[in-house]
Amino acid sequence: MIKLLNLGSVLTIILISTTAVTAAALSVLASTITSSRDGSIMNAYGQTGSMATLQNIGAQYAVSIVPGASQKTNLIHYYPPLIAVPIGTTVAWFNNDPGQPHTVTSGLPNASNSGTVFNSGIMPSTANSFFQYTFNKEGNYVYHCEIHPWRVAMVSVSSGIERGNNFEMSSGVGPTLNLTKDLRALLVFAPLTVPLDKSTPLTYNLTIAKSNEPNNKLFSKTFTVAGEKLPVELIARSDINKTNVYGPDFSSTGAYHVEAPFLKGNAAYDIKVEIAAINSKQPQNKIADRFSLRTAT
Q1: What's the CA gap between 131 and 152, in Å, rounded?
Q2: Rg (CA), the chain
C-alpha cells in the first residue's frame, strides 16, 4: 500500500516515523486513493472540490471537508484526498461538514512534528469557514484532523516549470503524470508577455492532443478569467467515456478541473495554450505556446 504513494523517497518536508500508527494511516490513505480509481469516490464527491458559491479568496485550489467526515465509517474526510500542485499554490480547505468542527493539521496524528508546518486550529462548522496555506517548498505534505484522526490526506508539491516564449507552465507532477500514484495534476499557465492585473478579462484557449497525432484534438476548451493565470487540473478518469469540466473553485476565481478519460497508458501529450482575447479584443500578435506532458504507468 505504501509503495502506491511512492512515499519512501519523496516525503522531504514532513518526516514520517515507522510506528504502527503511521503505517495504518498511510495504508488508509493508499486504500482511499485505490478506491478512487474505480470511480466510486469520484462519483460521490466529484463536484465537492468546486466551491462556486463561495466568495473569491486568494487561493487557487479548494479542498472540502465533506459531509459526514466526522464518522469513522466515512471513507473520505478531505476531498480530494491527494492533490499535486505547483510550488507557490495556495490551497484553501473548507469545512462543509454540518455541525462538526475540524482541523487541518500537518503531519500524522500523534507525531512529534504534528502541526509544525501548518495548523488551522479549530475550524467551526459555520458557512464559509476555511483555512488556507501557501506551499512554497517542494515536497509531500501529509495532514490530518486532530479531532477525527482516523483519516489523513496529502498535498504533493512540485517545482517543475516549462518555459515558452509567451507562457510558463507549472506542473504539480513535473513533466510526467505517473498514473500508478497520481490521479490528478494541477497545471498553471502564466502569461509572460501580458500583464496580470486581476481585473482585465483574459480569454484562454486550451487544447490537448497526443504528440504523435497533433491534429486529433482530445480536448479543447475556452476559459475566461479576470486578469489571472489559468489554473487547470487534469484528472485521469478511466471509468468514464466523456470528458467533464467543472469549476472554477470559487465564484469566479480558482482552478478549473478536467476529468479526462484520454489520460492513460504510456503516452506523450501536446498542450497548446493561447490568449484569444484581452478585454474581449483579439490581440494584435498571436500569444500562444505549446507544452508537453507525459503519462506513465
Answers
A1: 17
A2: 19
Could you read off the pLDDT of 49-58 as tens digits, one per residue?
Answer: 444 456 778 8
> What cell numbers appear for 232 in the block?
487547470
Reported pTM: 0.87
Q: Which domains does the chain have, with CATH numbers?
A: 2-158 (2.60.40.420), 161-296 (2.60.40.2550)
Task: Give all strands of the β-sheet with 78-79 in edge-to-edge order.
Answer: 78-79, 61-65, 89-95, 130-135
Separation of alpha carbons 225 and 190, rounded Å: 12
Q: Give, as one character, the DSSP assignment of residue 270.
A: E
Strands (DSSP E) contained in 139-229 are 139-144, 152-158, 161-163, 167-171, 176-178, 184-191, 201-210, 217-226
Which tens digits make up the pLDDT trace of 91-126?
Answer: 999 999 999 999 999 999 999 999 999 999 999 988
Give bridge partners of residue 268 from the DSSP assignment.
Answer: 294
DSSP sequence for 231-257: EEEEEE-TT-SS-EEE--SSSS-S-EE
For residue 15, what are the contacts with CB-CB under 8 A and spacing of at least 6? 113
- φ, ψ (nearest 5 deg) of residue 32: -65, -45
Q: 202: which 3 cell numbers?
A: 483574459
Biggest distance spanned by C-alpha atoms of the chain? 62
